[in-house]
Amino acid sequence: MTRPLLELRNVSRAFGGLRVNAEVSFTLGEGERVALIGPNGAGKTTLVNVITGDLAPSEGRVVFDGQDITDLSIPARVKAGLVRTFQITRLFTGLTVAENVALAVMQRRGMTWRFFARATFTPGVREEWRRILELLGIADLAARPVTELAYGQQRLLDLAIGLALNPKVLILDEPAAGVPHDEAPKILEAIDRLPREIAVLMIEHDMDLVFKFARRVLVLANGRLIFEGDAGAVTRDEEVRRAYLGSYADGRRRA
Amino acid sequence: MTGQHTSVEPRLGPPAAVRQLAVPVIVIGLLGAAGYLVFPEDLAFLTRLISITLLVLSLDLVVGYCGVATLGHAAIFGVAAYAVGNACIAGLADPLLLLAVGGLSGLVMGLVSGAIVTRFHGLPQLVLSIAIGQLVGALSNKLSSLTGGSDGLSGITPGRIFGVFGFDMFSRTGYLFSLAVLIVVFIVLTRLVASPFGLLCRGIRDNNLRARMIGAAVYPRLIAMYGVSGVVAGIGGALMAINTGVVGLDSVGFERSAEALVMLVLGGAGSLWGALFGAIVFQLFEHVVSAANPYHWLTLVGLLLVAIVLFAPQGLGPAVASRWRRLRRAGARP
Ligand SMILES: Nc1ncnc2c1ncn2[C@@H]1O[C@H](COP(=O)(O)OP(=O)(O)OP(=O)(O)O)[C@@H](O)[C@H]1O
Ligand SMILES: [Mg+2]
Prior knowledge:
The complex is a heterodimer. By secondary structure, chain A is of the alpha/beta class. Chain A has helices at residues 44-52, 74-80, 97-108, 125-135, 151-164, 184-192, 207-213, 231-234, 238-244, and strands spanning 4-15, 18-29, 33-37, 59-64, 67-68, 82-84, 169-173, 199-203, 216-221, 224-230. Helix content of chain A is 31%, strand content 25%. In chain A, helix 3 (97-108) runs parallel beside helix 5. In chain B, helix 2 runs antiparallel to helix 10. Residues 44-45, 87, 173 of chain A line the site of magnesium ion (MG).
C-alpha cells in the first residue's frame, strides 16, 4: 500500500445506548480508491461524520497525514485536505453553480476575508472553477441558480465543491443516491476522472459501481467492519453474505 | 473556452464598476428628488424615512445575507442615536464626526450582540435577540442621565456640515445630507455583498454545515457581518439624532425592531434593493394612509402585508426584478 493518509484506530460512536460504530479500524493510502459498503443503517454515514468532525467519536482516534485530528474542528480538517460530499446534497442553494464552486475555491485560498474584491470573477479563481466544472462536464450550467438543477447535476456540483478544496482524501457518501438509474454511470464517469493523486473513499450500494471503482472494499454491518479486502472476494465472503441476507451477494440489487 | 460561458462572463471591468456606482446614485437620487417634489412640506418625514431605511438595510445584512433571526436590531440603532446625542450635547458639533460616533458605537453594539446572538440558532436565537432588545430598552429607561428616560434626550444641536451648511427648520439640509449618506452606504454595501466575504455569508445562510465543510470558520464571519450591520444601523441612528434633535425610548424599542423586519420581508430579504424598496413602500404607505384615515390605517397596513405575502411571497424586490427580467427577455427576442 501507498503511504497511509487516513487512519482510524478503534473508532466507536454511540447514540445513547445504541452503538452505531464499534471499534472500526482501517487505513486509506495516498491515492487509493476504496469502497465502503454495508446494509442500510450499518453506520456508514455516521462513520463519515466522525471522520470529518461533524461528530466526535465515543472512543478511538482518527489520524490524518500523520497527525491526530480527533479533536480538530471541521474547518481545520478541511484545510488539512480531508474533504467529503453528502448523501443528501448540501449545496449553497441561494447561489449559482459558479458561485458555489468559486466560494470553495476562495475559501481554500484564504480569500474570504476580503470585503471588497469581486467574488466570482477574481482572476485565478475564475479559471479554477471553470476547470473544475469542465472536468465534471457541467460547465454549461455555470450561471444557473442551483435550484434549477436536476438532482443528478446537483450531485455533480456537490462533487465539484469537494474538488475545489484540493483534497488529499475525498469521502463520497453515496454519490449516486437519489439519481435516476440511467444517470448514475455519468456520475461514476466523473468520479473516474478525478485526479489520481486524490485518495477516494466511496460509500456505494450498487455493486456494479463498486467493482468498477475500487479494488479494495470495506464492509460495515451493525457498526462493525466485517470484511476488508479484495473486491473480487467480497461477494464470496460468508459473513458478508449473511449481513446482506443474500440481497447483495449476487452483486445486482440497488438500494 | 468559448462563447458558452458568456452568461457568466464578467460583463464587468470598468463599465460594471461604473454601473455599480451609477445605478444607486441615479435611482436613489431620482427617488430622493421625487420625494422632495411630492412632500416639500414634509421633509422631516422623508429624513426620518431615510434613517429607518438604513436600519432596514442593516437588518438585511444579518437576516437576509446571513440567515440570522433577530427582533432586537433597533437596540443597535437606538444606542448609537443616544451616543450621538450625548456626544453632541457634550460639545461635538460636526455632523460628520457625529456620524462617525454613530457608526463606531453601532460597530461595538453590533459586535457584542452578534457575538451573543449568532452563538445560537433558530428560536433560541430569536428569543435572545428580543431579550437583548428588552435589556437595552430597560437600561435606556433607567439611565435617564444619559438618555433622558421617558422624556427622551433632547437639546441635540449639531453644527454646520463642512462648516457651511447649517441644519434648517425645514430639514432641507438634513434631507440632502441623509440622502447623500444613504447613497454612499448603499454603494459600499452593494460592493460588500458581492465580495468573497459577502458570498461566504450567503453560503453560511444557505447551508451552515456545508460552509464549515468547505473549511470556513462560520462564527467569526457572522460576528464580522454583525459588526458591519451595526455600523450601518449606527449611522441610521446618528442621522435620526442629528436630524430630529431628540432621541426617544422608541428608538431602541421592540416595535421598531419588529417594524424594520416587516419592512425587510415586505421588500425581500437578501437583496439590498428589496430592503430599500420595502422600507420606502412601507413608510410611505403608513404615512399616507395614517394621514388619510387615522383610525383604520393599521388595518390597511395589515392588508397590504397580507397581499404581499399572497402575491409576492419573496417580497416586492424579487417580484419586480423577475417581472423586469421576463420583460427584458421578451424584448430581446425578435
Ligand atoms: N444523530 C443520531 N442520533 C441517533 N441515532 C442516529 C443518529 N444518526 C444516525 N443514527 C442511527 O445510527 C444508525 C446508522 O445510521 P447511518 O446513517 O450511519 O447509516 P448508513 O449506513 O449511512 O445507512 P444508509 O445506507 O441508509 O445511508 C441508524 O440506525 C440511525 O438511526
Ligand atoms: Mg448513509
